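WARN retry 2 of 3 for item q-0093 after timeout on previous attempt; input resubmitted unchanged.
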Amino acid sequence: MIMRLSVVLTLFVAALFVATPAVEARETDYDELCNTLVPNMTKPIVLDFWASWCGPCRTYAPTFQTVERTYRYRADFYKVDVDDNSDLVQAFEIQAVPTTIVIYNRDGDYLREEGVLSAYELKSLIDRACGKFSKR
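OK item q-0093 returned
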């Protein structure tokens, strides 16, 4: 009986991981963000400004991905490599990485936090943006 229960639990846990697809924010650039994403947004847009050489960015990446999995129905998530997207870096005046930007309306208004955020802090930032969200 204990052996059967162990097998059933193992199969159940494996099914949970298979049923929850891995989510990974895709990259975006200035043209796509300004000409497509923001004008057609249906929910807030979360941008993670990062760099491959940045230790704190590597620390923040798993938190960003975890929150993305749980909040993907409330916001759209994108990563912005600062080395490849100087136009976005200038547009948002990025001085440090990681920096998280949450755009909450089609006018491009946003909330901003610099540094490594905890899951609670990132969720709170997104929740605030959702409260301000407007499709105008």
